[in-house]
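Hi W., the flavin-adenine dinucleotide complex you wanted:
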Amino acid sequence: MAVNKVLVIGAGVGGLAAAAALGQRGVAVDVVEVREDEHVLGVGINQPGNSLRALDALGVLEDVLAVGFPYDGNDYRDWNDERIVLVPSSLGDGRVPANCALTRKELHTILHAAADAAGASVTYGVTVEALEERDDSVAVTLSNGDVGVYDLVVAFDGVRSPMRRRLFGDAFEPVHTGSSVWRLQLPRPADVTRTTLWQGDLVKGGVIPLSAESMYMLLVTREPGNPRHAPEDFGELLRERLAGFSGLLADIRESITSSQGIVYSPLVEVQVPLPWHKGRVIVLGDAVHTAVPHLTQGAGMALEDAVVLADEVTRDRPIEESLVAVEALRYPRVDLVFNASHAILEAEMQVTADAIPAAAAGMREHLPGQTAFVEGVLNQPFRAQADQAAVN
Ligand SMILES: Cc1cc2nc3c(=O)[nH]c(=O)nc-3n(C[C@H](O)[C@H](O)[C@H](O)COP(=O)(O)OP(=O)(O)OC[C@H]3O[C@@H](n4cnc5c(N)ncnc54)[C@H](O)[C@@H]3O)c2cc1C
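Structure:
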């Protein structure tokens, strides 16, 4: 193989998946993570069918299905809780459901166990100090003083990626979209069995089931100028922004008595054009393609990146050819997700109270077809034909 020893930077979704996939193919993998420990922040994370296929390729599908909540599509409503349209998902197949949501902690635990089982070594509280490209390797000095020599360095170091900056300068920094999302994990009422989204006045709310016991609520709001809200004010600010909704969101509003558990995330985007590599260093995942989370595809894209990377770099050919092949397979899918997610955010954040009936009519007419188009692409195999044929 052209690649026998790899350094992965970042033990998030993509980094742990890459460590597992490479390790399973006999590659020695070191992972460095700047966080001090395994603890991850966040609420729930939906895994749509294509993402579940990537998790299947990593051998962890059963683990995900065992803890998560599978569901079949999205229920779109207006803020009076009147159904606009129910859009079943065509993602998934006989083996994987259309969606399965779980907590972030559970997803990380499962991916970490897969990386461990594949023999990868994960070190926390460490990052890269220096990289020196040689003809046939990369020499890496870590912040703990260790030095290693690798055939390939893979950065899955997230939306604020230092490695993106190191390779490509500051031309591609994340940009705030003018909107943010508020999230809160809550007990799941029995009738919350799929993603339900409510369009309001320049605001969109929703709930996503996570398990038999829990779900999470989300609220996308316009936050021009990307203000820094004080965490102790989150409860009051969220209550203000939920005013106007009926039904479950109104009940949730009444139940919020403090800021505890509320996670506030500005929605940012960054899309880096190809190439994503320089020499023997490649940057993948959110670091080169952060979309807004409206299609719940970010982790899926990072997982697909990881599987394709492992497929391609373990072929017997020059590393440069393999990295170009990774990029060619990945770019069209992440580009579709980026643009479609952006379009949904733009559309929903322009709907004022008096425009809700017209927006609802448009959603009834167009959403099923638009969803089928995007899902049709995502249902295509994401791996090269030879690897896909081996699975079928
Ligand atoms: C509000 C919100 C909701 C979302 N919901 C969903 C969803 O439902 N479904 C879905 O699929 N996706 C969702 N996403 C997107 C998803 O979380 C990301 O796309 C995914 O985590 C990307 O994986 P990654 O490995 O590229 O980055 P990350 O998972 O962010 O991992 C990056 C890692 O690199 C580490 N790191 C950073 N710098 C360094 C350094 N210098 N050295 C070493 N390590 C470093 C970080 O600490 C982190 O652990 C959501 C995102 C947001 C913001």
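The two ends are 24 Å apart (CA to CA).

W.
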